[in-house]
Amino acid sequence: MDFGKLITESFNIAWNKKILWIFGALAGGVSGFGGIFNLISYVPSSLPFESPKDKALSTLNVLGANTASQDNQVWYKTASDVLFSPDLQVIILIILAALVVILLFGLLAAFINNLANSALVYSIINLPEREPKLNEGLKAGLHFWFRYLKLNLIVISSYLTLIILLIVVPLIFFLLSLKIIGIIFAIISFLLFLLSIFILGIPVSIILLIAQRIIIAKNSQVIDSLKEAVLLFKNNLGNSILAWLIIWALSFVYGFLTLFLTFIIGAPLVGIVIASFNTSVAAGITVIAVSAVIFMTIFILIGSVWSVFQSSFWTIFYTYLERR
């Protein structure tokens, strides 16, 4: 395969099909910031009536149990003070609310990310016969996003299963008081985990990328796409690994250039902000806001082009594998 041609075609798509930048920006990641926790569900500690825990203690006093189990009463009172503390209840509510918000943001991010990725692949795979359109991409994304999510969950659950097994086996030996064997297995498990990242990580990521394209190209279900992706990977092992190494090298270059660009753009902006604060606080805040918008816009655009390039690279690579 001509990888030079593959890179050129991918870059041409990423640069010329600007409508795809929208999907590229969304596929690159979704972030959210929220501060929605203002829970003041407070009950005063000095109540005009006897609380249940105090009533229980007074009952014990009447029965004379306090003289026999003074330590237990003290422990009970201390524990119940903590458990029934209004401050603790507020903290628990805040933690639960935070977990719910994080879960909702995670689900929203997963939906948008998978929708954008599937819309990108659909738009690219139909080139050059059909020019990308926003409404068609969105329609395809809504149709395929859940299959993409299931595909990702299968891969993630496989890794989690491996991690759990590598943790559970040494733990069993520790519980059986076989500490030396447990330590040996813990070391072996850690080494196996590191090896799995490098040995299994590359094939799994390539198979995942190929399976994503099969889902859209052939309207396949998740399991069928995985089976076919595994066969394509096995039959084209050398080219698949080489493609991964090329995109990895390009990712390294992209990261270095992005970091360099950050310093090039950031240094003058910092100087302008400092100078504006010397004028007035209001001017400084205004310059910070404008600079942040400019900075974020530039890097969102760069990230969008990069996302489209990567999607184009793997989509064209997949079509090459199918034609062989």
TrEMBL record:
The chain crosses the membrane at residues 20-43, 90-112, 151-174, 180-211, 242-275, 281-309. The keyword Cell inner membrane does not apply. The keyword Signal does not apply. Keywords: Membrane, Transmembrane, Transmembrane helix. This is Glycerophosphoryl diester phosphodiesterase membrane domain-containing protein.
